[in-house]
Amino acid sequence: MVLELVSAQLGISIIPKKLTNKLNDIDIVALPIKEPNMRWNIGIITKKNAHKSYALQEFIKVVRDIYK
């Protein structure tokens, strides 16, 4: 889905090099990152005001603890 959004010119994406072989049928190109030592910003997206299961709440706690 992400690659299709990129193909539709609705964004860009960073994907693992191993996934670039999936680009055969899609009109996009993979450009290598010259200096891959980058800091990642991690995000979690959920539906606003929706019920969050216990498992999701615990997962969010773990992610927050790891990526303070």
Report on the structure:
The chain is an all-alpha fold. Helix content is 28%, strand content 0%. It has two helices and no strands.
Largest sheet: none
| Cα-atom radius of gyration | 16 Å
**From the structure provided, what is the oligomeric state, counting identical versus distinct chains?**
single chain
Instruction: Indicate the low-confidence ranges by residue numbers.
Output: none
Which structural class do the helices and strands define? mainly alpha
The coarse overall form would be extended
Query: Taking all residues together, what is the mean pLDDT?
Result: 81
For the secondary structure, the number of strands is: 0
Give the percentage of residues in beta strands.
Answer: under 5%
Total helical segments = 2
SSE pattern: HH
Q: How much helix, percentage-wise, in residues? A: 25-40%
Distance between the termini: 29 Å
